[in-house]
Each structure stands twice: as C-alpha cells, then as structure tokens.
User: Which sequence fits this backbone?
C-alpha cells in the first residue's frame, strides 16, 4: 500500500493518576531518567546522559512524585540516588507495557498497511 517500506508505528504511553490533572506524568522522559538512575546510581549522571540540567531533572522527578503520590527515588546527597521499590516496580511495569504495545502496534501496522 505504501511505497516507503521504512514506515513503522511508534506508540507513546504515560501513567497518570486516574481523574487527575494533565500535570507531570510517568512517561518516556521520566522512565529514561529512572533508567539512568538505575544504571548510573545518580540522578545527576542520568540527567547529564540526557543532556539535561540536574535542576530540571530534579524538578521533573519531584513534580512526578507529587502528582502520582509515589516516591520514585531515594536520594542520598553526594552518594547519589536509587529507585525506591515502588519506583522500580513502576519503571518495570512501564517498560513492559511500552514494549508490549509497540510489538502489538507493529503487528497491526503490518496487517493494515503492508498487506
């Protein structure tokens, strides 16, 4: 159907509080910050990897924690940060849902547009 065979779908998801405002949600950017904390042991290092100021990363995390009512990070000052058990679980769930939705979207796309 399409001549350009390089097309593929991309699904983006966000986790928010049901009925809440459209404020800070747990989406791809927050997930990437959390992954960076998990891998690097520091919000500052995660922010640097994303070419983001630490102050912006800190504000994003605080706003998201406040909006969701979940503490995502344990901060230990100069010793870095780690994900809380809730933060780990939310990140793992987000990544699994994101992967599954994108796999499903690829299958649907192939059925609808490459047939």
Assistant:
């Amino acid at each position: 159907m399409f001549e350009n065979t390089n097309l593929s779908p991309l699904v983006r998801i966000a986790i928010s509080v049901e009925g809440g405002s459209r404020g800070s949600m747990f989406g791809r950017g927050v997930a990437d910050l959390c992954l960076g904390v998990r891998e690097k042991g520091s919000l500052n290092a995660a922010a640097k990897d994303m070419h983001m100021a630490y102050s912006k990363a800190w504000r994003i995390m605080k706003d998201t924690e406040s909006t969701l009512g979940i503490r995502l990070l344990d901060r230990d000052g100069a010793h870095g940060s780690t994900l809380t058990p809730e933060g780990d679980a939310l990140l793992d769930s987000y990544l699994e849902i994101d992967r599954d939705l994108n796999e499903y979207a690829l299958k649907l796309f192939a059925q609808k547009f490459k047939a």
The CA atoms of residues 13 and 98 lie 7 Å apart. Residues 28-113 form a domain with the Arc Repressor Mutant, subunit A fold (CATH 1.10.10.10). The longest helix spans residues 85-113. The chain has one domain: 28-113.
